[in-house]
Specification:
Chain lengths: 196, 611
Amino acid sequence: MSDITRRDALKGLAVAFATAGVIDHLAAADAHAMVSQITAVGPYTPKALTPHQYQTLLTLTDFIVPVENNKPGAAQAGVPGWIDSLLAVNADLKKRYVDGLGWIDQTMTSRHGTDFLGGARGQQTGLLDQIAFQKNRSAALDPGIDFFILLRRMTVDGFYTSPIGQRDIYPGNMARSEFVVPKEAMDYVINRSPLR
Amino acid sequence: MAQGANSTVHDVVIIGSGAGGGTVTKVLADMGIKVLLMEAGPMIDMSDFKTMMGPSDVWHRGAGDAAELYTEGRAAALNYSASFSANMADEPYTVAPGSQFRLFRSRVIGGRTNHYARVQLRYSDYDFKPRSMNDVGWDWPISYADVAPYYDKAERLIGVTGRPEGLRSAPDGIFQTPAPFKVHEELLYRSCAKLGIKATSARQAVITHALNGRPGCIYCGQCGRGCRFGSNYASTYVQIFPAMRTGNVTVLANAMARELITDASGKVTAVSYVDKTTGTERQVRCRTVVLSAASCESARLLLNSKSSRHPDGLANSAGQVGKYLTDTVGFGLSATVPYLRGTPIHNTDGYGAHLYIPWWMADRHRELDFPLGYHVEVGGGGFGQPTLGFGAQALNQAEGYGLPMKQAIRESYGGINISLTGRGSMVPNEDSYCEIDPEVKDKWGIPALRFHWKWSDYERNQARHMRESFRAILETLGGTVNAPPAGRGGGAGARGQGAAGRAGGAGAAGAPQAAAGRGAINPPGVDPNDDRPQLGPGGGIIHEVGCVRMGDDPKTSVLNRFCQTHEVSNVFSADGGPFVSHGDKNPTHTIIALAWRTAEYLAEEMRKGNV
């Protein structure tokens, strides 16, 4: 019986084969390849939200987990679509989003005469900077703050559990030909320990 | 599929396809002997294993089909584990009042070998002779020298990592190159060295180089899911699938053995079983039968095989079947190690633990207040796979959004705990055994097991020593122990990596760990001044051995030194049942070696016409 190489065994599995010892496992190029795979399917048609609500959600998730250097953000990682698919099976959750997105649009309108999507970037971040911090709690802002806590939780969840977002931070679940610990990591810990 | 015509007499029927049954199947099939392998669970193939999967392989990613996580706080389990756990409704067992026992059964081809932690340790000389060497329990009728050639054979087939150390408590084998220590393991190695304790590379049933057509490990750290590539040991793909390719194996899956049928001469002629797919009762005829259903289930089969010739069950006229059941002593302690925070993010998956600590007091046991020792398994640190709830700590402490939020998440990522988990010997005692429950039956009408269990001072004192030793090791490396107050147990010591966001079910064993004792302050009947750790329920470590023990004296044993029952020459045992003692090591490797030896003996006896 012939020996099976690691590469042969991995045929059929879409697994990036990492070179031993390389810390930055997924080059930006690979990330964009994954994105274009996703977007190649076509634009997402929301199941629970209206097109306007969905677009607002997409913009919000993009603020929460933006593009970083060349690494994709929540929007490219499919987060808004994932959230929308959860809203489609949970009426209570959907209501929270519809109410929350509506609150954002109304607040933006009463401040700046435009919905969130129509606002200037500084107007958008001005509102988000308020509702992203619980120290700003007040009768007026509470609905927005409560919504933002939920939205941020689900955006972060959706990002880091997506194939793209997982690769943003997690170096594991990869195929390697060798297990190595980077010297930098070992030195960091040993030098801070009482056992150096 | 052909399930054996009613008139066919199979030379060998093997009941159970785990480490023992898989081994006998392969050894006999390779010799050209035709076997029928009966398995209570279904057949699977490599694509059933969830290796390399992640939350996004399920659309809701763990939020639940109705996204209930976000409105009710209930997460849906993402079950990656390869454990096909028997459910209590279909397959109950009972526990006698005053006893605590938990029986874990994996009903699938390969059984628990699909998901176990792959700890693969040879028993030492003293593990076979606790009476002569440590004045407790009973000696096996055989010794390390009898089993050593079979450890060799097992390692040549399976492949085991390790570093030769020349330690009495860690007999060296035929090793593959182990992976280097992880960061927290290097700390443990040095801390142990400072305390005069020799830690070494873990001995895992994982191959780092291609072996017998199986590729080397890709270090994804998901052994508990079953290995899609076959780079670790499971009887499924290391023994059973190759054996099936010889053409000498018929597999009868979804077949729940009920009892062994004997003829007037007292020999077994058939196995009665329930075909679970149809619910009908059937039989396969056999020339010999091998019991590999797992220690307690094999005992159950014998006890349920009553006839006028065997009124107390087969091979049980001495009343030894079910007796002297043991499980591993489990205790764990973890510590927070603050300086791990900020460790450069890197891939820590590996193949589970790369370091373990063999028992270091084997030659000095008379200095201790317990006779038999333990080894230590380790966990810690680590950058785990993100699941829902990832970064929660950062989100709580650092609000906001955008790149600063991402940075806060990054800075809080990674486990900063290190854990030590003891796995110790138990001395067999008269109060720990299984029998048939007088009333309860399983869903197919087969009488169920009832368990009796007691830990003795031997084990409680040993656990106290674990606690003191672990505290010393963890504090020497600068950790702050996360200890429960005295009087509470450390539980059975779930082996955790402490990694934030580790994927559900991907833990080392992939099977539930006992939590009894943890959080229970001085249960009724416990002396509040007794500061020894409480131990979890028997069976909680899932290393049940005994109940069908070997020995030279038929009055005090069920099997002879070749694991053939004293009373019925065509019945053999090849699982954990024969174990006379419980070593300070996990049983799997010894189950395989013994089963190999038994298979060769059985083949020789058949060749000579003795069975």
